[in-house]
Amino acid sequence: xxxxxxxxxxxxxxxxxxxxxxxxxxxxxxxxxxxxxxxxxxxxxxxxxxxxxxxxxxxxxxxxxxxxxxxxxxxxxxxxxxxxxxxxxxxxxxxxxxxxxxxxxxxxxxxxxxxxxxxxxxxxxxxxxxxxxxxxxxxxxxxxxxxxxxxxxxxxxxxxxxxxxxxxxxxxxxxx
Length: 176
Description:
The relative contact order is 0.26. The strands form two sheets. The protein has an eight-stranded mixed beta sheet with strand order 5-4-3-6-1-7-10-9. A two-stranded antiparallel sheet has the order 2-8. It has helices at about 25-35, 45-50, 65-75, 100-110, 120-125; strands at about 1-10, 15, 40-45, 75-80, 90-95, 110-115, 130-135, 145, 155-165, 170-175. The chain starts with a strand and ends with a strand. The protein is globular and about 40 Å long. Helix 1 (about 25-35) runs parallel beside helix 3. It is built from five helices and ten strands, in the order E-E-H-E-H-H-E-E-H-E-H-E-E-E-E. Helices cover about 30% and strands about 30% of the residues.
């Protein structure tokens, strides 16, 4: 049975914003390894549209960006959206029954499936389907933006913490 893991970069004050801060080289290599080992990803529409950047090659990419793009492209993706009518390669739309579709996905797969996007994660949290939360804590204060937890924070228990690079700590929590 697959495990759903919601993990994102977060500022010290609890916000996620891919435009405000980015992973350094060590953390980016960590994300490449994560992507290579995952059984797939579940995206909300907004996060999927951000990640579609990796569908197209860019001549300015270095070797690590090309490696991440290859890992991302090879990974199966399930997109939760009411407005999208089609999705890109190696992706499929999730219908109206979010709970049923995700429970079926967890039952039929093995390994870790990434959940991407705070709003989607909140919906899956309310359904009791997230198995682990990973916060990649950066030494940045934004003061505003989209919070990591899009709704009430679930009761959590810390299971691991580790330093990923000189400035980023990964915190792993499971529902309490």
